[in-house]
Amino acid sequence: MAAPNKGRRQTGAQGKPGRALALILIVMVALVGGMFLSKQATPRLGIDLAGGTSITLAAKNQPGKPNAINKKNMDTAVSIINRRVNGLGVSEAEVQTQGKDHIIVNIPKGTNEKQAKEQVGTTAQLYFRPVLTAAAGKPTATPSATPSPSASSTAKGKASSKATPSSSASPQGRAVTDALKADPTPSASDKPASSATPSPAQSAQVAKLQKDFAAADCSTAAGRSKVGAAAAAAKPTDPVVACDQKGGEKYVLDASAVAGTDVDSAKAVIDQQRGEWIVQMDFTSKGSKKFQTVTKKLSQQQDPQNRFAIALDGAVVSAPSVSETLSGSAEISGSFTQQSAEDLANVLSYGALPLSFHEETVTSVTAALGGEQLQAGLIAGAIGLALVIIYLVAYYRGLAAIAILSLTVSAILTYAIMTLLGKGIGFALNLPAVCGAIVAIGITADSFIVYFERIRDEIREGRTLRPAVERAWPRARRTILVSDFVSFLAAAVLYIVTVGKVQGFAFTLGLTTLLDVVVVFLFTKPMVTLLARRKFFASGHPWSGLDPKRLGAKPPLRRTRRPSASTDPKEA
Asked: pTM, whole model, 2 decimals?
């Protein structure tokens, strides 16, 4: 019986290399197929390559805070605006300060620029204000207000918001005067509104709000802008007149009960039971106490005084009703689409800023300069790739075919993934990212060279090709993994500690480094194993790149038989 071979393992790539090749082929087909199914055949380009929109925001001090414009607040504002823009799925957007009181926001072409401009432009403080009264958005001839019947409470313990308010008014509504004479959110022990006697200052405030509320025209963009500017300039402790964003309703809102800074997180999700989009939000510990106190009072009121308006920059984003005392979390439901739910969640998450801003300029950015630089970069990359291929063919001959095929597979995977990421997470390819892809050519070629040289070293030791391929792999694998780990670590650190375009370079470098490992393990190694079984390579053809004579191989080691002991007496 033959003794079993010791110290030899049949790895997947060695025993059945076809499986690894089939796997990477399936992955390639799936990625390319997904790219065409998503109707996105090219990567999204950054603002330096495709152009886009540049918005200049000018900071202004809030009432009572003359020294609010400082480096700390400006840096905080940049951070929040950057998160808000990214919250829209915009990637590679640039948000940076210019001078002491300006912020520049560059948004790449191909994103929802109108939506981004609206949300970036509305950068004032976010407040939760109880609704005193509501009416249709058009001006009224008399200073009386009636609530809209459109807002209704939903499931117990949840807030609700109707996306399309009714323009009709209920005849049972309360006038602005009655709403403001008493505490708009009384507890059960408070005196009824009819017994409250307003002070002279209160009466003057009521008269002004009556006049402003009756005159407010929320049905036009100009009217909403005028009302919103007055509301944004008011103090958080003052009641204000406000419009909803679509102009269907106008409101008298009480003093702010909860600030936007008290919101910990918000997200848009789909309710599986009802099959509709909702917004879930959580408050900080401090905000939870405020929210619990005010919702306890609101839940005891009738519509519209049980409603809680979410006001951003003087405009009401949503005005859900409250049916029960809520604590640290709430759910807003209504006639939401996915887009409107995500917009509201984004406002709730990133609405609060330490400063007020207004749009100073909005300009379109052309990609002429970036296009010229891209063309020059692609030419340089093509020259570098051609030189690498010439070197591989001249030095490795037949093995160069494997390297070229591996580079092609890596290029297809990289292109497809970048294209899908542009559609999925808003990844935009900018000039530094292109540089990262060009640098990756050298990293990928280095992995092939390490493996090929290990194989040639084994042949120099006198081994034939098939055992040389398998003996070289463990040593080459360790070197490749260590080298790629160092490159990926450098890319990860660079991505974390930098911002803006440099992150594009780091992201591309990290992605291509990971793909290098995938290609070497699932394509290069199995291909070498298969070709080692072909006569052209196994026989050491001069053009295979594995000719033992050209490599200076040692002659194979052979055992010599010892002569047996002689029994001839003459030789003794």
From this structure: 0.53
